[in-house]
Amino acid sequence: MTGEQQPEVAVERQAMDVDIVCVGFGPAMGGFLTTLGRYLAPGDGGASLESRVAPGMPLQVICYERADDIGFGVSGVVTRARGIRATFPDLEPAQIPMAAPVRHEKVLYLLDPVGASRRPASLRLADNAIQALRRVLPYEAEALSLPYIPPFLRKDGGLILSIGQFNQWVGGQVMASGAIQLWPGMPVASILVEGDRVAGVRLVDQGTDLQGRPEAGFLPGLDVRAGLTVVADGPVGPIGRQLDERFGMPEGHHRRDWAVGTKVVVDLREGVGLDPGTVLHTFGYPEPEIFGFLYVHPDRVASAGIFVPSWLESPVRTSYRYLQHWMLHPYLWRYLQGGRLRSWGAKTLQESGRRGEPRLAGNGYARIGEGSGSTNVLTGSGVDEAWTTGTQLAEAVLELLREGKPFTQEQLERTYVKRRRASWVEAESRIAERARDGFHRGIVTGLVGMALAGLSNGRLAIPAEPAPPHTRVPSLERYYRGKIPADEIARIRAECAARGLSLHDALMERAGWPVIPFDGQLLVTHQDALLLGGKVQAPPGYADHVVFLYPSLCERCGTKICIEVCSGQAIAQGDGGIPAFDREKCVHCGACLWNCAQPHPEDPERALIEFRAGAGGLHSAEN
Ligand SMILES: Cc1cc2nc3c(=O)[nH]c(=O)nc-3n(C[C@H](O)[C@H](O)[C@H](O)COP(=O)(O)OP(=O)(O)OC[C@H]3O[C@@H](n4cnc5c(N)ncnc54)[C@H](O)[C@@H]3O)c2cc1C
Ligand code: SF4
Ligand code: SF4
Q1: Average pLDDT of the chain?
Q2: Which H, E and C letters describe 405-471, residue by residue?
Q3: pLDDT tens track for 38-47
Q4: Through-space distance between the first and last CA atoms of the chain, rounded to whole angstroms
Q5: Ligand 3, pocket-test mutation among 236, 588, 593, 595, most atoms within 8 A of CB
């Protein structure tokens, strides 16, 4: 399929009517369904909320999740858990597998122990000063521990969670309520629109070839018609993007700041000396723009990972390779050495925050969670915010149901949007709104801007206009100027193409990054990580969900960052210079959605890749 889209196959579809149809099961939907389910459960006033589509029956609520179970998810997570605790006031961390209360927090500036990272002169000066004064500073193992953690970064009284385990714990209770159906393994393909109203969703077709053409056993996706469609499909969800295309973004809003988060779950060695509840945040290495985290769960298990942001001006933004260099930093390796890879994963974060907020509600639909701009980019917090927006929508929906009012834009704005605007989620997102703009002018201005915004409650910030991601992708020749001559880049490019390899390993090693000393248990090849640390599943009979819209433009693309960044090695060199997609390796991280070197010819805010609804992906309940 190309930019010249194939005509839709005309088929007869089955249809079903429900009261509320929900898209995606992450923390936002967890908050929505938990709050709603409590009032719908039999014997708890549920009878008063009669179905509008099946009179005499209880309210019909159904939720479709793309991944093959409801415990899919990739996240840190450390969270203050204010919203989660408001829903579960008696919550004991021990109730949730892998949860631990936050005990010790540290923010570390990592120096560059290998001399390969691209540090501006100001950081090099700072590094030299730290080295010179290291005996009197809180410095050890090439890292400076910040003596003061600003309140906006602290997670006092919070929780360390595994998102997979948390989602499963929440989902178990939602299903036990008996009032709501949860269907994993059911990607939602599109919205159904009637005039200016969203009238439900269409599920993906099954039994097709990779281009979506019917084959034997073809099962056209069901049309699920509903009075309210709740969209919580996360940062890269196709349903949220369809709504944006159909109804437009609010004036001045856009999604230009992204990051790909890559993490490992590690069984730490015995006697490692890290208590459950330990939280380490890092910045400065492997590239200054890359932030990292290490959180310690009970039973000597840690989650550790990095975020590679869209403002990292590198054409080889490989998060997997950078993760390994980060793990090998002497400060962290002291803890990670001897550990064993238990699980692995990658996922995109929407980092535009409130500036990326879409229309929160319209006729027949409402949006919650990260796709609705709830993630706080200053505090590095998304789970609790997503959860809270879900609970706010549930309270609004219950109010409208009790009043017998329709799910119109006006009514949803009066109930849901009003609650959201009056809440801490909104107040804190306004403080964070311009906090990261400084990163568009450089790493040091970015860090200063964050500190200014955080300490002044958003009154001060370094002004800059976020730029679309494709403008932040230099050519390989420009990026490596002075380090690797252009003719050598051409040679490496030809050699890698002949062997079907991405370029980042060869280029990074040529630019001074040491070879990764694979140990087969924690430091493993990218391919082994896909097999070992979270199995990738791709059930047959579905169309490709990653599509190159303009192959002729890809053919001429010298950078091909989509190949370099791909978290699953699912995008590779293809025939005639056009990348090839292998859905059997795709972990659905969504990084290809925003990692493209060229703008879409009709919409410069979009890339040349389309990321559609797809089945399968990473199967790991521990991330
Ligand atoms: C590596 C990493 C570390 C992070 N660390 C932290 C942290 O320490 N603290 C913190 O608070 N936040 C953290 N976050 C952010 C946090 O994970 C998100 O903000 C949060 O998960 C958002 O919740 P959500 O429910 O809005 O979306 P998601 O969790 O993204 O859930 C959306 C769901 O929708 C499903 N879906 C998508 N498309 C479809 C479709 N077409 N049909 C059906 N289902 C669909 C997806 O499969 C997914 O399950 C981190 C994120 C990453 C990637
Ligand atoms: S999708 Fe974008 S980055 Fe990838 S080859 Fe095409 S133009 Fe280049
Ligand atoms: S192809 Fe799949 S694994 Fe690769 S970047 Fe895109 S979503 Fe991630």
Answers
A1: 94
A2: CCCCHHHHHHHHHHHHHCCHHHHHHHHHCCCCHHHHHCHHHHHHHHHHHHHCCCCCCCCCCCCCHHH
A3: 988 766 544 5
A4: 33
A5: 588
